[in-house]
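Thread: Newbie trying to understand structure tokens

Hi all, I'm a second-year student working on a class project, and my supervisor (Dr. K.) asked me to get a predicted structure for one chain before our next meeting. I've only ever worked with sequences, so writing a 3D structure as a token string is new to me. If someone could post the tokens and maybe explain what I'm looking at, I'd be very grateful. Here's the chain:
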Amino acid sequence: MIQSQKSRGPQLHAPCLDIYLPIYCKFTSEEIESIFTYIFNGVRQTDFLQTKSERWLIKAYKELREAECLAARWLDMDLSQLYACNLKGLSDFALLTYASIVQERDCEEVATESSLKEERRNTGWQRMIAAYYEILIGVEGTDLVNYSWLYRDMHGYQMVQDEDVFNLLLEKMISYDLAFGLSAHVVDSLSIAACEWIRFGRFEEGSSLLTQLFETQPIPFFVYERVAVTFANLKHREWLSLLFNGLSHASEQSTHAADALRKVQSLVVFDASPISPRTNAERRFLKAIRTIHSASTQPIRALAHEALPHLPSVPVKQIPKL
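---
Reply by user tm_fold:
Sure, no problem. This is what the structure looks like when written as tokens:
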């Protein structure tokens, strides 16, 4: 997960972060360098610096300086030493920097030693996940990290296989998005939860949550795609048929549904005859799919708390307001 940053010539203050800047950093290498430059000369030379308070810039500099110093040390280690680093107590940004360096160093050195290729790749991958897990379980956060993006990639790149850890990731992800007003992300997260519950064998819970989402929320294309792929991969032929049936019906009056149907058809081959719903749950799901919402009819916070009753007790990343 490296944000490609080619060297732009001599760098005054943060050469390691200029190259190994984590992709989940909210800011570009140019903006990071401008923070260092400001601390050294006191001049706000960019629009980016004009938007930040003195306290924010000083705190950001301290976090970045810590990560830069650690990165310099990590880059001097061989892979075995790098893998053995203790991650406890590191800041979230330092942990992201460690993960970025592990991934890049792993790719560089494994390429030259094919006999160790698989073993080292697995070790590097596990160490990167270990760094992300430390971020996941920690409470103290930083304004330098895009947590919503990180949490989604932890799911999307299949970094979490254990159901308990997935539930923790889900709760952290939704709590963060609710706390910071990212309502559209919550719809995405709840659809992830529903599909994963189905994968873990909790079909009734998962399909019920999907129905509630389709009944009450505007649904992005990728959610329809995720649901179709989940049903197809897990051989839920009847429910896949209901999804196609509902979108086909809705597409007669909605361009959004028509576009969603085309996207789903490009991912999942399904040419069987439509299946009629047999249970109340199936009938309710089909009806929900046929209804395309342009706006929410139920607050997403209420739906999230209904699906995850203990969500209010989940610690949210504490990001200082400066």
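A couple of things are worth pointing out once you decode it. The longest helix spans residues 54-75. Residues 1-145 form one domain. Feel free to ask follow-ups in this thread.
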